[in-house]
Predict the structure.
Amino acid sequence: MSLLRNVRKASGLLQVCKRSGVRNVSSSTSLLEGVRILDLTRIVAGPYCTMILGDLGAEVIKIEKPGTGDEARLWGPPFVGTSKESCYFIAFNRNKKSVTVNIQTEEGKEIIYSLAKKSDVLIENYVPGKLDSMQLGYDVLKGIAPHLIYCSITGFGPKGPYSRRPGYDVIAASIGGLVHITGPQGGEPCKVGVALIDIATGLYAHGAIMAALIKRAKTGKGQKIDCNLLSTELSTLINIGSNYLNAGKEASRWGTAHESIVPYQAFSTRDGYYTIGTGSNKQFEELCTIIGHKDLAKDPQFATNTDRVANRNQIVEILTKILSTKTNKEWESLFYQCSFPNGPVNDLKATFSDPHVQDIGIVKTMNHPTAGEIRLVGPAVQYSEGGNEVRTPPPDLGQHTNEVLTELLGFNGNKIDDLRLRKIIE
């Protein structure tokens, strides 16, 4: 079986790994080199998780439905390339191998069983009970591959009255209160502009898998991990949730403003919006000095943050009038070296042309097999020893089926042809 290999020799962990049957540590800079991920996920949360693991050097084998593949491949427009690949799919699926398998057939299940024996982690995001009914749930897989870490990502978790309901990001955000607190003050509730709960759940799953790999390096045993969108959403309510649970304070919508800090919001300028946050009285004094109104900091209505919260409408109206006299670029120049956080509200053109974004090199360019040159936002985390990087473009559907079945499972050409003829693979 393939067990965790890329473990450092520090703190005697190498001996623990040897006792657990872990293979020799590689000299590669990839942090998860030697870890194999069997990816049965689609859409966003699961693919985002496996993308992060792939960035770290894990081998990710993405199992897709013959003919259509991951539903996100069809989520467009916009599409790019001759195969009409969706930009949606491109965003979450780099550093993966695509293998088409019809998992509803007996032969398809046997392929998954064989891959599970040679993998370290299986990740899936089916509705609870679906894979169990297909003999691909954890209870079956742990008997076949007891070392396997089996991570399920669902909408609402494995128990409770909602457990069998399908769950998308905006549904979890609606039920969990996030949509209620998002939007303009006094206006309609809004969803966040990206699938933030999907992404956060993928991040939770990635961290849980890393912890389980460390535990398995000590015990040699796999385990089941359950992550779900609603629990993730509730955990991200942080202080807003605490305000209700501990003080009985119901939440409301504030737009870009902050309930407890003033000023802390976007203000209209001559050509757009500019966001300013002053977390201390000293920072507020500095703001007043820079905009040429020192008197505001001495006004008893605005002297402390408590005063400014109590007189929010008055100070916001005054600051809006002042800030509307200059452009974003002019304010950015004036605020460049100040101590309080600030920045323009950028559209995506301004975001990706921002000199800081360009300087850190987070946007990566590579060639896709059918889409040609594509650009991706690379990993957000850097390691001093390297190894967290974009290596391969998102795969075409079934691009690696032959490679994985022959090199990993030892299938010969005749067997592969037969499976393809009977539509077990594509």
